[in-house]
Amino acid sequence: MIEAVGLTKRYGAKTAVYNLSFQVRPGTVTGFLGPNGSGKSTTMRMILGLDRPTSGHVTIGGHPFRQLPNAPRQVGALLDAKAVHGGRTARNHLLSLAQLAGIPARRVDEVLGVVGLQDVARKRSNGFSLGMGQRLGIAAALLGDPQVLLFDEPVNGLDPEGILWVRNLMKALAAEGRTVFVSSHLMSEMALTAEHLIVIGRGQLLADMSVKDFISANSADFARVRTPQTDPAQRDKLMGVLAEAGGQVLSEPDGALRVTGLPLPRISDLAHEADVRVWELSPHQASLEEAYMRLTQGAVDYRSTTDQRAGLMQQPDPMGYAPPQQVAVPDVPQQGWYAPPPPGQNPYAAGQQHPAPPAQQPAPPAGPPAPVQAPAAPPAPAAAPADLSKSEDAR
Ligand SMILES: Nc1ncnc2c1ncn2[C@@H]1O[C@H](COP(=O)(O)OP(=O)(O)OP(=O)(O)O)[C@@H](O)[C@H]1O
């Protein structure tokens, strides 16, 4: 088990990690999520004794990493796949690691096979692709057959077959009772791989709970209902009926209704009783990505802006190639596309304060709010968490 208690790391005036406490238990894959620059790699480096905490501590099996006897046999890690001597062959790189840790040479050939690099084992790693480098890094992590494994972005650069392989590998390692701690920005992949999540934002703990609880605490399933566009009165009638029955109704950009708080069969019955024709009635299950976006949108440091191209856009040459004309399809607004929060829990609604981070336990669902019958309003930007960039004791 990995246990962090009050872990804090400052780099000069920058606080990268602040007062983080969590446990990573054996037997499950624990995902480690957070926006760019939120402190995931710094936390992993502290777990591995590569960075010294400014305060707090972190242990593996009850000991700080540096005090573990024969650490490479107990803990394996992929932090930076590029951190290899490029002039060495893959096999020699692993052989040197194995010799340092007293691991027999035949284990090197075993792990090369496990990661699928046996055919390029005698090639220099500076000629490796991004994905091949990742595989070599995973081989190094597996070398000592350790009980505790840390992977920082292991699927970075892997092809679909490689991503599936990593997913199955992580699950198999956890099923053998090992502790598996893995960071990733690929939410769809995390949803398929991890059972438990630790989410941080600006160095602080935002959530520590199962994937299932995380999704239900941060978003809600809803139904999409569409009536014939040619008859707006039918839509208005249905909106009234659904709201009267206790549903929360929002309008989607394409005119469909987004309904929370009523099960699909009830919506169908209500439409039938009101004599409203329905062209679509479909369930929408909230995804991990939607729940993650909702929780972390106030803790994102780096946001993109639209490329204005400084007026450099060229007119198409009438004599040359012109791209095929496409019918303009309006974009779904980026904010607000995701599933709504659970009833009564919209921490980002205008005028509300940013809530205390829902760490440890998902908040119990509150009572349903007053039904909304207006087009889906994009959530107002959340108040940013406390500014951690002001150091208390700049080093
Ligand atoms: N050695 C260092 N010196 C100064 N600042 C650092 C150092 N290492 C990390 N930081 C800063 O600490 C913060 C956290 O960085 P970290 O790499 O841990 O984030 P991350 O969550 O792993 O990001 P990403 O998802 O982009 O990999 C960032 O603001 C980063 O600039």
Task: Characterise the protein shown here.
28% of the residues lie in helices and 19% in strands. It is an alpha/beta fold and 395 residues long. The model is unreliable at 329-336 and 346-395 (pLDDT under 50). The radius of gyration is 25 Å and the shape is globular. The longest helix has 16 residues, at 160-175. It has helices at 40-47, 71-74, 90-101, 105-114, 130-142, 160-175, 187-193, 211-218, 232-244, 264-273, 288-296, and strands at residues 2-11, 14-24, 29-33, 55-60, 75-78, 148-152, 179-183, 196-201, 204-210, 222-226, 248-251, 257-260, 280-284. The strands form three sheets. A six-stranded mixed beta sheet has the order 5-6-7-3-8-9. A four-stranded antiparallel beta sheet has the order 11-12-10-13, covered by helices on one side. Strands 2-1-4 form a three-stranded antiparallel beta sheet, with helices on one face. A hairpin with a 5-residue loop joins strand 11 and strand 12. The protein has eleven helices and 13 strands. 38% of the residues are buried. It folds into two domains: 2-216, P-loop containing nucleotide triphosphate hydrolases (Rossmann fold); 220-290, 2-Layer Sandwich (Alpha-Beta Plaits), CATH 3.30.70. Bound molecules: adenosine-5'-triphosphate (ATP). Adenosine-5'-triphosphate (ATP) binds next to strand 2 and helix 1.
**Helix-strand makeup class:** alpha/beta
Number of helices: 11
Oligomer: single chain
Question: In the CATH hierarchy, what is the class of the largest domain?
Answer: Alpha Beta
Give a quick account of the main beta sheet: strands, pairing sense, barrel closure. 6 strands, mixed
* Distinct small-molecule ligands in the complex: adenosine-5'-triphosphate
The percentage of residues in β strands lies in 15-25%
At the fourth level of CATH, the homologous superfamily of the largest domain is P-loop containing nucleotide triphosphate hydrolases
Query: What's the pLDDT, averaged over the residues?
Result: 82
CATH topology of the largest domain: Rossmann fold
What level of helicity do the residues show? Answer: 25-40%
In which order are the strands of the major sheet placed?
5-6-7-3-8-9
Q: Cα-atom Rg, whole angstroms?
A: 25 Å
Total beta-strand segments: 13
CATH architecture of the largest domain: 3-Layer(aba) Sandwich
Estimate nothing, just give the exact number of structural domains.
2
N-to-C span: 30 Å
Morphology call: globular
Sketch the topology as an H/E string, one letter per element. Answer: EEEHEHEHHHEHEHEEHEHEEHEH
Low-confidence stretches: 329-336, 346-395
Keywords: ATP-binding, Nucleotide-binding, Transport
Domain ABC transporter: 2-227
Protein name: ABC transporter ATP-binding protein
InterPro entries: AAA+_ATPase, ABC_transporter-like_ATP-bd, P-loop_NTPase
